[in-house]
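Reviewer 2 asked us to include a model.

Predict the structure of this chain.
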Amino acid sequence: MVRQQENTGRNGEVIYLGKLEGQTLGMDRYLVTTKDEFVEMLEELKGATEIAFDTETTGLNYLTCDLVGASFSDGNKGWYVPIGHTTEEEQIPKFLFIDKIKPIMENEEIPKIAHNFKFDYQVYKMTCGIEIKGQWLDTMIASWLNDENQRHGLKALSKRFLKYDQTDFKDVAGKKVRFQDAELELAGKYACDDAIVTYRLMQYLAPKLHEQELTKVFFEVEMPFIKVLADMELEGVPIDKEYLEQTGEWVKEEMMRSQQEFWDAVGYPVNLNSPKQLGEALFEKMKCPVLELTSTGKPSTSAEVLEALARKGYSSAKAVARYKKLSKIHGTYIVGLLNQIQKDGKLHGSFNHTGTVTGRLSSSNPNLQNIPSRDEETQIRRAFIAPEGYDIINADYSQIELRVMAHFSQDKGMLKAYEEGKDLHIATASLLSKIPYDEFIKAKKRDEGGEELSEADKKCLRLRGLAKSVNFGIIYGMGANSLAEGEGISVAEAKKFISDYFKGFSGVDDFIKKTHLTTKKYGYIRTLTGRKRRLPDIWSDDYAVVASCERQSVNSKIQGSAGDIMKLAMLKLHYEVLPKYDAKLVIQVHDEILIFCPEQNTEECMKEVKEAMINVVKLRVPLDVDIRSCKNWAEGH
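Predicted model (structure tokens):
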């Protein structure tokens, strides 16, 4: 280091001030607190072939947190630059840090490595105004691609792959808890380790991905997809706070009404949130049948049991079921959403890249996938609104998982139905019932038009519903018992329907069997982009475990490939299509995406969005997209 003053380490060795005691994975560590040390670090980073980096912040909300410090590694050394610690020790001023590090972090010729790159990108952008450029390399996603069944935290990976135990945060911050209050020397060792371990992890994981033929999907799909999600989160969605508050008041009134209805039926007040009191009232006082037992042997009062009792005609259970449903809506989707609105009036949810083993996205803060889509009473999605002067473009892949099934299975019946633009559920019902396809279409139109339905119409609608359950159920490995329970038919009827289904769609049956055999041979399946889904328990001696893996193998192949198609579509839209219209992706849930588009560009943008989504991959059957414009999310359905 530049400073020539010397200090004595714990073991008596002479070290330079600025150079921290000991090494991490063969690299020296440096605490950068003077301008000279900072300049020296910058010179070395400018000549780096790649840079691993990490940020230390005052919190995990990139919209409100401040930068406490930044760590770097070039593969030879590790540095920590303290910026916002509460100590009176010398630190690098934030303005100087930003001014000097910006050209390096925005240098497109130097690849950047981070663990959970999305967060650090957002922190640099929001706290420093720096747009990180160059090839992005995320060790968290590399770990997920390498083995989706394991934990992907930095410390866990360091221990498993590098045999190095990192310092725990609590050992650094102590009882103070806040990292910014930690002593600089301790903070430096901790932060340097993060950057160094991240660098070494990339060195370890890169050849692993290459060996498994996962390098292409890593670079071409997963790495550019990080920025798609990061920008979606940064954009956020405006929330109609007044609508949510009004809906919340109405829901509370309805909860009280349902509670009173139950109390009147029982004859005395009952705490509906108490399983004990509710169980006594339902099963002892009201004599409702016990459908399930809890792990302790008590009658279950779960939401599923209450719904089942309500369907059987028990009005008291119906009142409680409604109360429970409304209570969840109020607590999770009204109060929960209101509490998560940021100062800009928007909800900035988290889209989790590695949140599922199948490759599908998950979301949190809030979980957008669980927000009711067709709840006519509360319409929570109506609170998600377009900004002033913008429209929401709602684009939804139609039956994408079934189209993927048709592509892989090459079943003649499925291929023909999609090539002819038919409703697959009606085609399935027609094939199995021998009722002409046109009769189903007529019944569906009469139902949608509110016309009086004949018994024949009702039968057609029931059969279409049954066919839909089987079509989707096959992907999830649904058996006769589940189909019977879900559709209210006998197990014998369900078995016959499934048997007839596989006779009619023999290609699907063959595909499922081949997928099971492939999984048993290799221990994994690959999705459309080549990503792996590992199922090592397929070699278990336990039949139930093997059967579960077999079901997961088919589901992962289909769902994972559908997820691949969605990612490819989002990449195409984010980088190529939407910038032309000043439009932005904001939400992705299941097979649906939401886009904010300036009103004057909506019509043209919709045309190109649909074309891009339909043509993003070439399957054996055409993809289809339902697309419409609206002012709130509820209107998009």
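The longest strand covers residues 390-397. Residues 1-10 have pLDDT under 50 and may be disordered. We have added this to the supplementary material.
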